Amino acid sequence: MGHESEAREVAIEENRQHRKHGGLGRLSGCWDWVLYFTTRYGYQPRRAFLLLFVLWLLGSGMFWMAQQSSLMAPTRVNAFRLFQSKTPSLPPGYPSFQPPLYALDFFLPGINLYQKSNWQLHERRPADWPYRGYAVFSVFYFLLGWIFTAVALGAITGVLKPP
Q1: Cβ atoms within 10 A of the Cβ of 96, count?
Q2: Where are the beta strands (DSSP E) in 17-128?
Q3: Do 12 and 43 contact (CB within 8 A), yes or no?
């Protein structure tokens, strides 16, 4: 009858009820929840890209704050020494830190934007709590980025089709 969006909503709810009452194991239940959250079981594949965009914005903001807190430092020894001197600078040709590019480089697999390989979080002093907070954020950011990217690519290529 042309009620495609309503049929999609019914199918999504049917899958959700299956997750709740279908007796799925822990791993299957977790994966089912990821599919629900990211693409609504493949019925809304664009949702995964929206989540990737939001995650990228969040990462860009967090890495910008890490830079403002002087927690980002060059990875190469000569660049690090110049960067830590009284007049901080970088060697000629060394890429400057770009939080949006670093955020992309951090979680997109197979892409090298030369940010992650040239910049890293640097602990200013032992037991530096802001550093630890950003380090924990980085781990979750990396994991979520890979999961959301895999689901988005699966949804676009048709690997994750609605049941």
Answers
A1: 10
A2: 72-74, 119-121
A3: yes
> Other C-beta atoms within 10 Å of 35: how many?
21
Query: Could you tell me if 118 and 95 are in contact, meaning their C-beta atoms sit under 8 angstroms apart?
Result: yes
Q: Over the stretch 97-107, which tens digit does the pLDDT of each residue have?
A: 999 999 999 88
Q: Report phi then psi at 131, rounded to 5.
A: -60, -45
Amino acid at 102: Y
Q: Which residues contact 129 (CB under 8 A, 6 or more apart)?
A: none
Instruction: Quote the distance between the C-alpha of residue 59 and its chain's center.
Output: 7
- Contact status, residue 122 vs residue 72, Cβ threshold 8 Å: yes
Amino acid identity for residue 149 in this structure: T
pLDDT at residue number 19: 63
pTM tops 0.70, yes or no:
yes
- Residue 7's pLDDT is what? 67
* Unique residue bearing structure tokens 């994750």: 160
Nearest Cα to Cα of residue 13 among 35, 36, 31: 36
